[in-house]
Amino acid sequence: MSPLNAEPSAIEYGVFDIPLQLDADLEPQREQLQATLLAAQRRLKAFAQQHEWAAHVAAPFAHKVHFYASKATFDYDLLTLCGLDPTIELPSTYCGALEQGVLTAVSPQLYRTLYPQGDEPDAFEKLLTHEMAHRLHIRILAGDEEAMGPVWFYEGFALYAAGQLTNAAPVLDNDEIWAIVQEEERMDYRRYVTVLRCFLQKATLQQLVQQAGRPDFVAWLRQISQ
Length: 226
Fold this sequence. Notes:
Layout lengths: L8 E4 L2 E3 L2 E3 L7 H21 L13 E5 L2 H11 L14 E4 L2 E5 L1 H7 L8 H18 L10 H12 L11 H9 L6 H12 L4 H7 L5 H9 L1
Parallel strand pairs: 3-4, 4-6
Antiparallel strand pairs: 1-2, 5-6
Helix pairs in contact: 1-4, 4-5, 5-7
């Protein structure tokens, strides 16, 4: 594998040999975790190709990956990486991130413990895909993070790209869907899967991505839902 200070080299289009750093307790899992990281990149590449966004996976989304055996250490390092107060208490379910070109996540075992509702086939692979999908979303928008739209949409986008929580998504009635659309606080991600699916029956994902950052996004959604 590439050394930690090297630019990731391409294994194939859209898939890169990203240097992987592990806490000591995770070293016995290195080969499996490397395979999972490659699988996550291939999963995202397939999604991008399906939606005609393949050009946006030509460069790696991360130059380094670090998996942690400790949630406390993960939190501390992530907050420090982001230039934030490392004593801030992150939610127990916050298990992965891609910031400053560094993809970080707790171990697959710890992820299962901290987020049992996300336990599904290839759950850890999907978590990594989800975090990279946020960066794909930003690239599609030419770097304009403000255009990603409300939290339900940009998290819904990443969930959809990763194929996450598909079988766990609840059935919601029309009132519940619109309540989620207008809610600014984070909610159960499984609900976002249902909401995005609802609007994908009315518009393409490309259309939703282009509209999501506009002030009249909700009005537009109501119009196409009539």
